[in-house]
Amino acid sequence: MSPPLRIALVLNPFTLDTKGGSHAPNLARELLGRGHTLRSFGAPPGAIPRSGEEEEGTAAPGAATLAGFAPDVIVAYDALSPAAFMGARVSRKIGVPLVLIEAGFAGVGSPMQRLLRGVGERLWGSFVRRTRPRVVALDPLAGEQAVREGFDPERVEVLGEGVDLATFRPGLYSGLIARHRVRGRVLLYVGRIGERRGLDVLIDAFAATVGQRSDWALVLAGEGPGRRRLRAQANRLGIGARVVIASRPRDEELPGLIGSSTSLVVPAVDDSVRGKQIPRAMACGVGVLASDLPRLRWLVEDDRTGLLAAAGDRSAWKRALARAAGAPMARRRWGLFARERAEKRFDWGCVAQSFEELLLAATSEREISPVAGERAPGDLPA
Pick from 102, 106, 52: which is nearest to 81 by CA? Predict the structure, then answer.
């Protein structure tokens, strides 16, 4: 059995809305379950699970506080963030390895994301890279982004997010479906209803294929500025009765909603969509119809766990919907393979084991020598 580690988890203070999203708390929970000692820095109290004997992290940790925890390894979110800079400072000061977790931009990134990234590159990017961190990218595009930003390709590893297989599992039922009186087979979209999501293409393809049948429905669950426009489009095409535009489900409703659907649809037109519902659908034994884009192609295996269709191509999506509707045995096969893939690749236990192996490998490398005399950019007394 591997020796337990003291792990410092440092969150990016400028991502106050997510604080690492669901990745950070789930990873922390799994690492604690493997016997490691963990303390988070930069997260609100109670946001990240921690070891019982450790104090809560603070919203703005100092280098002295982080160093005083005496970690064996530092894990920081977002490769050019203040969290990465703080992690690099302490890593170099006390001679422990640094591991960065990089989610990458959604598409080209928002103006604010690009601004903050640019500031990080100018102020401390080279300093962080000289620490020679390992980088865990949450998908291939995040890995490519890290390499473009100058991180050593040989130290960048793609390791996606996990899914809770006990929460997302086959055989669930949705009260939301019942409330909207949806009957028959369900094509489900969950996410923002707005630009770049390909929902107009999906509705056109649905209207030309299974939307003409009484035993299929299209459910769009989410919020956004496109709801009224898509409702008008569905009515204009004569399929208004077969299209349900529902509010975004609560977290506790999501497993049942996905599990009671026939197929999850992700008709994105570019890589601004991460496809975070895809592993959840696969865990529920639900096949996925997705656009053939790098970020989604990494998750969906064509004609094995679902189907891939050319992004934004109405004809391609018509063929995909017609194929899925006309092949019940294929849908069953996709669902079985999807659950199997989720168990082998997306289970949080498997993801955490791979992450743990990476942390142990990092700590077994030649010990980092504390850097004396090198002043960090904008360095202040700890």
Answer: 102
